[in-house]
Design brief:
mainly alpha; Cytochrome C Oxidase, Chain A; 0% strand
């Protein structure tokens, strides 16, 4: 935990509200698939498929990103977040916006989509406006900060592109829908999600998985490559109308991320957190498989089932599995920080690893692997496996929520036993 300034950590309740929303939306995605069946896996452009995709990208990944950033920026990057009470209404607006979006998209209610785009974009843009000045200021860890700044900027651009897509759907902007949709998805997934994971992993892989440190020049080179690839790929996609240039330019940094994510944990300096290692490894393999399928599509047109399979592997299985494993580690830190702040002198608080038990993490991983296998099968045989996959997904994310709450309960039990007069902050 060297290099982390826990004195700068925000009150645990601020990131917790975001992180506890992650499994709730994962369960919602499972329920959506359980109710919709193969309708949600029929086509990339199906309203039900789009709604399901955003349950993962905004509900699961979006809440995880924003909650983690609230904790990570001041503690690990030394970048202040000048938000006090704002995270409460930002969280409420973001998640209400997602709920409105899902309902409006499945019913194609155009006014509802307009409301949802505002509710979603405003908190993201406010968050970016609060985070970027600290990240762009001169100081230590410039490479790490530049990676985080890229991710936050990409998140803001994704929100603006999403609002533009809603305007196109409403007939208010005569622009190419498919080109902007591809740019929106690529900037969001590569620039924001993978960009943030790469920057955060440069700190957390050595700390939590016992790997060697990621050389700063490697991370800096990858960040520069990603920015150039996104800029060139998006410009060519919109200017030429052709999809392959964007795909090829985005796949290079994506595959490099996959390779590094697999390579560093293979030769650890100290073996620790095995459930996290395996959730990260299996999630990375799923993302890599998605990249290979997409790459194959640049030479030969892919059938609709292969397109759905690639999206499922990357968006519904791989990235959420990596995020869920990391999130359970963050939950342990949040509970530990809350105890440290409330603990009177002379009382030793439980270690981070005891608050979220290893056994619970293994159960979560096993359930996610089962749900992932069923989801991959559902992408190929939607009529047969879509609803079983939805049920497996719902159970897997319910296990994540139960594990989170169990960790917080352990901290609460210790607090009540040793210093009951303390305010319950976690």
């Amino acid at each position: 935990m060297s290099g982390l300034d826990f004195a700068q950590a925000p009150p645990p309740a601020r990131p917790l509200r975001w992180l506890l929303s992650v499994p709730a939306w994962g369960m919602a995605a499972g329920a959506c698939l359980l109710l919709s069946g193969d309708t949600a896996l029929s086509s990339r452009w199906s309203p039900h498929t789009i709604a399901l995709v955003h349950l993962f990208t905004l509900g699961v990944l979006g809440n995880a990103m924003l909650g983690s950033l609230l904790q990570f920026l001041p503690v690990a990057a030394g970048a202040p977040m000048p938000l006090r009470r704002s995270p409460a209404w930002l969280h409420a607006s973001f998640n209400l916006g997602l709920a409105v979006f899902v309902v409006s998209m499945t019913s194609m209610h155009r006014n509802g989509l307009a409301v949802a785009s505002v509710l979603l974009a405003v908190p993201i843009l406010v968050f970016a406006a609060a985070a970027l000045p600290g990240l762009l200021a001169r100081g230590a860890q410039q490479v790490l900060r530049s990676g985080l700044a890229m991710a936050v900027t990409a998140l803001a651009l994704t929100a603006l592109a999403g609002a533009l897509l809603v305007a196109i759907l409403r007939g208010e902007a005569p622009l190419p829908l498919e080109s902007i949709a591809d740019a929106h998805a690529t900037i969001g997934l590569l620039g924001a999600v993978v960009g943030l994971m790469a920057a955060v992993a440069s700190v957390t892989l050595p700390m939590l998985q016992g790997t060697a440190r990621v050389p700063e020049r490697w991370l800096g080179g990858w960040i520069a490559l990603t920015i150039v690839s996104l800029a060139v790929g998006v410009a060519l996609r919109i200017w030429s109308g052709q999809q392959p240039p964007l795909v090829v330019s985005a796949l290079l940094p994506a595959l490099l991320f996959v390779g590094a994510s697999l390579w560093f944990p293979l030769r650890p300096q100290a073996r620790r957190n095995r459930p996290l290692v395996w959730s990260w490894r299996m999630g990375t393999l799923a993302v890599g498989a998605a990249c290979v399928i997409v790459l194959a599509g640049t030479t030969t047109p892919l059938p609709a089932s292969s397109v759905i399979l690639a999206g499922t592997l990357g968006i519904a299985i791989g990235l959420p599995m990596m995020v869920s494993g990391m999130m359970l580690e963050i939950m342990g830190f949040l509970a530990w920080i809350g105890l440290r702040r409330d603990c009177p002198r002379g009382i030793r608080v439980p270690g981070v690893g005891t608050l979220v038990a290893q056994r619970d993490k293994w159960v979560v991983l096993a359930l996610h692997l089962l749900a992932g296998a069923t989801l991959a099968g559902a992408a190929l045989f939607p009529a047969l496996l879509a609803r079983p996959a939805g049920l497996a997904l719902l159970i897997a994310w319910a296990a994540v929520l139960a594990t989170q709450l169990r960790g917080l309960a352990r901290a609460r039990t210790f607090r009540r036993a040793h210093f009951p007069e303390a305010a319950t902050g976690t």
